[in-house]
Amino acid sequence: MEFSKSIKDELEGRIKKLEDFIESKGFGSGRLTKAKKNTEEVNLAVFAGSIVTVAGIAIWVLNRNHK
Question: Which residue, 10, 36, 12, 40, is CA-closest to 23?
Fold first, then answer.
């Protein structure tokens, strides 16, 4: 049982290394890198926008109830 599990783990590791190599050196790897960077930037912009929106709503609610 343990013998087959260790073989399975080793094969999965080798497949992962091969996938990583293809991702970094394969056809279209430059576009993939740019897409990942753009995705990170969009996620950051959405996060910042949501923080600003929540802060704006909180300020609006506090000022509305103060008067």
Answer: 36
Could you tell me which of 32, 4, 8, 37 has the C-alpha nearest to residue 19? 32
Residue 64 corresponds to which tokens in the numbers above? Answer: 């509305």
pLDDT over 90 at 16, yes or no: yes
> Which tens digits make up the pLDDT trace of 33-60?
899 899 999 999 999 999 999 999 999 9
What is the pTM assigned to this prediction? 0.57
Q: Where are the domains of the chain?
A: 2-66
Neighbours of 29 (CB within 10 A): 13
Phi and psi of 27, rounded to 5°? -65, 125
Q: In which residue are the tokens 């709503």 written?
A: 57
Decide if 29 contacts 36 (C-beta within 8 A).
no
